[in-house]
Amino acid sequence: MPYLDRQNRICGFLDIEENETCGKFLRRYFILDTQANCLLWYMDNPQNLAIGAGAVGSLQLTYISKVSIATPKQKPKTPFCFVINALSQRYFLQASDQKDLQDWVEALNRASKITVPKGGSLPPAAEIVKPPVLPQAQERKPPVAYKTEIIGGVVVHTPISINQNGGHGGEGSDLAAHPLLRRSQSYIPTSAAKPPAGPPVLKSGYCVKQGNVRKSWKRRYFVLDEFSISYYKCEQDKEPLRSILLKDVCKTHECLVKSGDLLMRDNLFEIITSSRTFYIQ
């Protein structure tokens, strides 16, 4: 039966198959450490082991795509068995009873769940720059006129200063008097690393994509605009790993007919081009 230790980690004994399809299960002590983003297993409770004895196995939680109860076809002679799908490998584990089985499956699925940031959410705290506090003498200056422009689909208000000759000051004088540009309050930046440029973004967010060569699944940040769909290693990257032109896309639809590793994937769709089919979850 899994329990929480003093470090708020889920722990307990399970039997794990030594090698996939070998049918030999070994008793191991498991620790689900969400802070370290990994599942560890030991020969015994680490408190009973010699000092310095490490884990005999580990698995990164980000590699786990799905945890489910094993079907009778997969393990017909192993009761209370469940399977962890990670990259191209499967781990079969056996619990002590039905409740133990359900608790471990739910805990592992919850710990490995991919959290996708909601659209329109505020940027991370590190990206929020507070404007400098102006002295009271400067705050009492008369109102300044602003020039409104649309740059890259963003409404930008640029302060316009008037020089002593009555003309409009140049760019240097504008920035000297007013070092900040004010953005429209209706605009919320999605990332400080990617200034708005090019065609407007129709939709963006994180998905999990299957690789073309190794067939491994990795989390990528997708951006869809009027001309292409691109994916990045992370939201802060400026250059995409790849861009797919929409004119090259033959068909896009939900993937209903699945086989192999795709059977374990929910919310799966495919983008079909003349040269390749992209599977995206």
Automatic annotation (TrEMBL):
<protein>
    <submittedName>
        <fullName>PKHA2 protein</fullName>
    </submittedName>
</protein>
<dbReference type="Pfam" id="PF00169">
    <property type="entry name" value="PH"/>
</dbReference>
<dbReference type="InterPro" id="IPR001849">
    <property type="entry name" value="PH_domain"/>
</dbReference>
<feature type="domain" description="PH">
    <location>
        <begin position="7"/>
        <end position="113"/>
    </location>
</feature>
<feature type="domain" description="PH">
    <location>
        <begin position="200"/>
        <end position="281"/>
    </location>
</feature>
<dbReference type="InterPro" id="IPR011993">
    <property type="entry name" value="PH-like_dom_sf"/>
</dbReference>
<dbReference type="InterPro" id="IPR051707">
    <property type="entry name" value="PI-Interact_SigTrans_Reg"/>
</dbReference>
